[in-house]
Target: LCCL domain-containing protein
Amino acid sequence: MADPNVLRDPESCVRQTTATEYKASEMADIITTASPEQFSSSTSHKDDPNPLLDTVRRLLPRPIEKRGVAIYGWLQGPEAPRLYKISPFLPRIQQLPLRLVDTVCPRQWQRAFALLVFYVCWIATFAAVLRKSAVAGDVSGYGEPIRLQCGGVFWVENNDCGLNGTYCLPFSDSSFAFRCPANCLSEEVQNPRAVGAQEVIYEPLVVGGPTSDGQHDYTYRGDSFICSAAIHAGIITNSGGGCGVVSLTGQQSSYPSVSRNGISSIAFDSSFPQSFTFKATDVSCKDLSWDLLAVSVVYTALLSLFTKSASVFFYSTVIGCYLQAALATDTPEYASIATLVSSAIGKLLPALLISMFMYRLYIRRTLHGLNAQVEKTVLWLGPCWVAVLADYTFELIPLERLTAHDIKQQPGGLASLIVIVVVLLFIFFAQAWSFRQEGRLLRYIALYICLGITIGLLAAIPQEELRLHHYILGLLLLPGTSLQTRPSLVFQGILVGLFINGVAKWGFDAILQTAAELQGDALDGSLLPSITAINATISNITFTWPGVPMGWNGTSVLVNDVERHRDYSSSQTERSFTWQRMVAEEPEYFRFGFFALSAAYGLEMGDYTMGGTWLANGSWIQMAAGAT
Model:
């Protein structure tokens, strides 16, 4: 009968070889512990001839040479390198699942069949819960709910709806059933957004809400996040998402600020041409992302406990975590389940190819031969899941992206970066000491010097911005975890999880991106109109400003955040604009910005000024300095 250990772990079929049979250059690939005697004849590298080193030594002054040789010798590590191997705590308890497998499935074909049945059960359970989560019944009178993203809106910012909001029609008399995913409270405005004279950032954009305690008396401004507003109104929940009916109700005045269900809405004391309200439904369409997460965590934990094969554990975990993130907890924007599945499968294949290299080069050394089943599950798989759910678990870290703009703009961003760098330095020195003990420090120093030079050269490319995405960070730092130590299990699990999270949600974005790609809806620092004279009465107001500067073709005027005037003129002469008050006894807010027109690029809008206020009594409050 075959050796049970061989049957349990296909990788253990490799011929067992003593350390003395390996060349010195191959010793770093042995995962078993070796005694100093075994290393004495094969790994003594202190006196190995090195022509390049000898040449450098001859060129250096004697004191510097002696110090350099001493440092080089220390970096090479001890004469008899120590290869780390985790000795399990309470080994009999930790290896109980493996002994159970030996007893129930003593033959290799039995284990292969049991693994196949396990995979079938996993896929069937995951698919059943995913289907139940994705499919919702028809809402009476409205049909199947339309799936919205957390940031879905009727009215887009600044002048993107066109003059008088033409591109965002209809304003009223339209209703449909909708469906929102879970966790929409995390959807926030990432760049300054104007609401009248106010500026909103790093919070959900919800303007208005219930004007009384009545359950149906809530109205929201048209540019509010629909799903966040539905949570605010109590139509759906943040934890489970849900369905409802939304109706456009046209112009509304005086949107109140109300704190409900974890959201403090924004007040707006003037009119807006588009508003909406909600109506609850009896259709159950709860987002089961967290139920799917429970399924994925349980199956990966069982696999971790009951298999000794490093490759089976690693590849199964990568696929399971990836599908959980890509199809449930960290999905990209999608129009239907079919497009979501197509996108996920398209990114899975290259992710698996990269995972193969990750495993062969770095991860195999950490996981191969590790029979501390509980420690592997807790220290490697647990942190991996924490990083896969980075959008939730790292949400409290006030740093959205590792870009200079975000670090400066986001409150606490610089402090968070400093803390992260300090922690990484501490981990670096701890890992470097372990690599030195194994006699592998120099090669990893050389590797990271090459990586640093490469990143520096990339950062120096003109008109490009360096962007270290989640998956790139995981790949860059992963080599530093190629040790079988308990800290390395934790660090490696986190980095693999970051890789999975980044690919699942954002795909393989380039390490270099243009400023326009990174800018999104952020300010671009363009010129702003300078309002030089204001003639205001109770019923009308007139603005004047100098001519349009070179490079621009006209001026856009927003009134209450709606584009009401577009002056097509590149003349250097003074320009003016007169506005008649729309609703008596209400303040109105004005913002001004230049635009450019070209046959190649169409309409290109610059930044707008901050909002100035025309009070109901006819007086004018000048806009503050700055752009929106």
